[in-house]
Amino acid sequence: MTDYHIYGRPFAGSLIAEFLFTAADCPYTISFPDETERKTAQFLAKNPTGRIPVLVCPEGHSMFESLAIVHHITERFDELAPTASGAERDRYLSLITLLATTVYPAYHRQHHTRYYGLEDGFDGIKAKAREMNDTLFDYLEDQLSPYLLGQTVCAADFYLYMLTRWDPQKDQMLANRPKLAAFCDQMRGHNVVETVLAKQPRKK
Ligand SMILES: N[C@@H](CCC(=O)N[C@@H](CS)C(=O)NCC(=O)O)C(=O)O
Predict the structure, then answer these.
(1) Does 197 have pLDDT greater than 70?
(2) Ligand 1 pocket by Cβ (under 6 Å)
(3) What element of type H or E holds 5?
(4) In sequence order, what are the beta bridge partners of 7?
(5) In angstroms, what CA-CA distances link 44 with 64, 69, 70, 133, 159?
(6) Mind listing the pLDDT tens digit for each residue in 79-103?
(7) What is the pLDDT of residue 47?
(8) What single string gives the DSSP state of each residue in 132-179?
(9) What sign for the dihedral angle of Cα 110, 116, 120, 121?
(10) Is the domain defined by 87-190 classed in CATH 1.20.1050.10?
C-alpha cells in the first residue's frame, strides 16, 4: 500500500491534512504544484477548482475540499474528532463546517481578492470579508475553553489554528480576544504543529 499524497502549498490549506496525519502518526508525502501545474488538465481532474489541498488516497482515488479531507482522515483515525452521535459530535460538526465553509472563504477573499471583483472594488470586498471573520472570531472566542471542545485538542482546533495564521492583521485579531490569543500560543507550541511547520519549504 502506498502512502497518502497531499498536493499543497507551504503554510496554506494543506496544513490541516499535514496536522491530522502527523497527529495520527500516519506517513504521507507532499508536493507543491505551482500555478501552471494547477491549471493543467491532470490537476483539474483531481480538483476542478485548481486549488489545494488535494489528497490522493492509498487506494488510488483522490479527493478535494479540505472539509471532505478532514472527514476522511477523522473517520480513519480515532481520537481526532468525536465519533459517537450526540451533542458533542454535532457541535464539532457545526464548528468544523463553519471554519471550512465561512471563515476559510473569507480569508480567500482577502488574499485572492482578484477572483471576486474588479480592482476598484477590492477594498470593499476585503472589508466585508474582514467584518465577517470579526463576527465569527467573537463567537469562537466565547466557545474556547481552552479548546473548541474543552480540554482535548480535536481536528477543529488544528483547523482554527491554521486559519488564524492567515490573518493579515493578527495583532488586531487577538487584541481583545484573550482566549483566542492563549489558544494560538498553546497550538503554536503543540508538538504536531511544531513538527509540521518546521517541515514547510521556505521561499528562497
Ligand atoms: N474550499 C477549498 C478552498 C481551497 C483554497 O482556497 N485553497 C487555496 C490555498 S489556501 C488556493 O489553492 N488558492 C489558490 C487560488 O485560489 O488560486 C478547501 O477548503 O479546500
Answers:
(1) yes
(2) 9, 12-13, 51-53, 65-67, 100, 104, 108, 112
(3) strand 4-7
(4) 31, 54
(5) 11, 17, 21, 29, 25
(6) 999 999 999 999 999 999 999 999 9
(7) 98
(8) HHHHHHHHHHHH-SSBTTBSS--HHHHHHHHHHTT-TTHHHHHHT-HH
(9) negative
(10) yes
* One-letter amino acid of 5: H
pLDDT tens profile 27-44:
999 999 999 999 999 999
Residue 204 has pLDDT above 70, yes or no: no
pLDDT exceeds cutoff 80 at 154? yes
The reported pTM is 0.97
The grid cell for 46 is 483531481
Out of 15, 43, 51, 64, mutate this one to test ligand 1's pocket (max ligand atoms within 8 Å of CB): namely 51
Q: What is the CATH number of domain 4-79+193-199?
A: 3.40.30.10
Q: Where are the domains positioned within the chain?
A: 4-79+193-199, 87-190
